[in-house]
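Dear H.,

Thanks for agreeing to be a second pair of eyes. The structure we're designing against is below in token form, covering all 536 positions.
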């Protein structure tokens, strides 16, 4: 009997050992990928920062569809336009999910439209956002967007060295005005400073490698708090997010109750709350997640635009020559001019391609098994859409690392002449499938207005070294290393193109006070004093 027990125990041990050693191995039905090791799979070689570079390197080796093993889990990486269309658009119902994210759920309670899985809450949030962010609805907010775009022009005239902060304030103020009906005239305005602080915390904990991989090592979630400081970080992020989101919602509710409506989007949500079947808790998170999507990404985009204009003077001159021909020097551009500015349109597309704000997008997840090209992708794996790899593919784009807007004048996709573009889209930077960004019209309007104004009004160039008298090289690769990327603070010179331009820019700002007024109700005393000091 003792021998039987020993043999049985030995057999069970061997069976368990073999089973454990199979963890992390790539199943034969999956697309190919880098060699995996037992238990860890590819976790040992998966980069903690700037993962898009490594995933692009692997795509050159394994193709536009490959897999990586994340411990017992699997991730599928898409770096090909045809695969993207086939899996994310044509089979969008199968790839509509998000992968499990314990950290995101702990912070948001599963109520973030961006991070939430395919749940009833997500469907309610998605419907509400699509209903209120239609193209015609966004067009009604063009007046405040144009007014908001005038303040950075004034700021660049009076404090050009502070341009980086001015851009961040502007993007936040635009989205606060449009969503919650309350603008932010200063970066120090409480809602703006609070937003960027909590957003930095939020992006940091979402960045792969910054916290333990709890979804792949679930036992970590049960570690005692003294050994799991990440719990404190998550809980503090949650507290500060909720203070911001629900503080803004409460102000909007009070303004509506006192008949001080200004037509902002959240007023419409509150009016149609019963129609949407959306709880107050979800209303708060709907507004919060739209601030995140509309502020951080837009400021990153505008900062990349200025970086590109300063680093690539040929592109800057072409853009200015075109806008001078169409608009002249005695007035600022308007949205009506945009259709006559193909090179400006090309500049916008090239900034998106050259420095996408979300190089890997937000990962998707599969809800159904998919058979594709002889492979089998089961339900559950994470899907990385490698925007960076697709937009910097040397087989698709001429000189992909250069900022070269001219490529978009050759064809609508900016690709090499020989490339077949049947399955290609020129807006993948806004997402794909049923997770496509619902705020695309609002974002496009802000980007259009800011690009035309900034190109029309100013010259951009490198700083001059006081000792040598030579231009200081601009580092176009110095970007933040997170789930969203933006240029780290950089130095450029910003000067008005002429006295006539400067006068027109200042006049535009002063004339915007009427458009600002409905959005300045309820501002604090310091903000009111600041406004008085800026207007004549």
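And this is the sequence the design step returned. I haven't edited it by hand at all.
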């Amino acid at each position: 009997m003792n021998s039987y027990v020993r043999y049985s125990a030995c057999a069970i041990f061997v069976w368990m050992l073999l089973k454990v050693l199979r963890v992390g191995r790539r199943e034969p039905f999956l697309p190919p990928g880098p060699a995996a090791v037992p238990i860890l799979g590819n976790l040992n070689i998966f980069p903690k920062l700037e993962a898009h570079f490594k995933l692009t390197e692997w795509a050159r080796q394994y193709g536009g569809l490959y897999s990586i093993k994340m411990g017992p889990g699997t991730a599928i990486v898409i770096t090909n336009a045809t695969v993207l269309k086939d899996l994310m658009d044509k089979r969008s119902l199968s790839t509509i999910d998000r992968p499990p994210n314990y950290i995101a759920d702990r912070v948001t309670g599963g109520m973030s439209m961006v991070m939430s899985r395919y749940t009833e809450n997500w469907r309610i949030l998605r419907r509400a956002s699509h209903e209120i962010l239609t193209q015609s609805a966004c067009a009604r907010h063009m007046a405040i967007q144009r007014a908001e775009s005038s303040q950075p022009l004034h700021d660049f005239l009076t404090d050009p060295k502070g341009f980086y902060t001015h851009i961040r304030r502007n993007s936040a103020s635009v989205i606060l005005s449009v969503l919650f009906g309350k603008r932010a005239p200063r970066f120090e305005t409480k809602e703006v400073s609070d937003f960027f602080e909590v957003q930095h915390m939020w992006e940091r904990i979402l960045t792969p490698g910054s916290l333990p991989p709890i979804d792949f090592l679930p036992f970590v979630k049960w570690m005692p708090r003294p050994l799991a400081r990440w719990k404190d970080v998550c809980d503090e992020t949650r507290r500060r997010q909720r203070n911001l989101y629900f503080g803004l919602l409460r102000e909007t509710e009070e303004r509506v109750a006192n008949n001080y409506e200004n037509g902002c989007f959240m007023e419409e949500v509150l009016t149609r709350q019963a129609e949407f079947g959306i709880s107050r808790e979800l209303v708060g998170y709907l507004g919060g997640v739209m601030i995140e999507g509309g502020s951080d990404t837009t400021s990153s985009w505008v900062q990349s635009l200025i970086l590109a204009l300063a680093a690539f003077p040929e592109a800057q001159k072409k853009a200015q020559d075109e806008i001078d021909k169409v608009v002249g020097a005695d007035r600022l551009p308007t949205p009506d001019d945009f259709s006559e500015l193909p090179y400006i349109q090309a500049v916008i597309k090239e900034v998106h391609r050259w420095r996408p704000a979300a190089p890997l997008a937000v990962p998707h997840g599969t809800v159904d098994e998919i058979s594709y090209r002889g492979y089998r992708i089961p339900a559950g794996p994470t899907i990385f859409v490698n925007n960076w790899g697709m937009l910097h593919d040397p087989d698709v784009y001429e000189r992909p690392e250069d900022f070269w807007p001219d490529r978009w004048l050759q064809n609508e996709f900016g690709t090499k002449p020989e490339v077949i573009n049947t399955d290609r889209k020129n807006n993948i930077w806004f997402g794909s499938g049923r997770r496509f960004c619902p705020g695309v019209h609002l974002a496009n309007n802000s980007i259009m207005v800011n690009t035309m104004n900034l190109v029309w009004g100013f010259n951009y160039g490198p700083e001059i070294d006081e000792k040598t008298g030579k231009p200081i090289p601009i580092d176009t690769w110095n970007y933040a290393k997170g789930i969203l990327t933006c240029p780290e603070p950089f130095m450029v010179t910003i000067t008005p193109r002429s006295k006539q331009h400067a006068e027109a820019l200042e006049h535009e700002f002063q004339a915007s006070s009427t458009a600002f007024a409905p959005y300045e109700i309820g501002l604090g005393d310091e903000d009111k004093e600041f406004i008085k000091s800026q207007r004549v």
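Two observations from my side: Residues 13-22 have pLDDT under 50 and may be disordered. The domain at 2-534 is CATH 1.10.630.10 (Cytochrome p450).

Warmly,
E.
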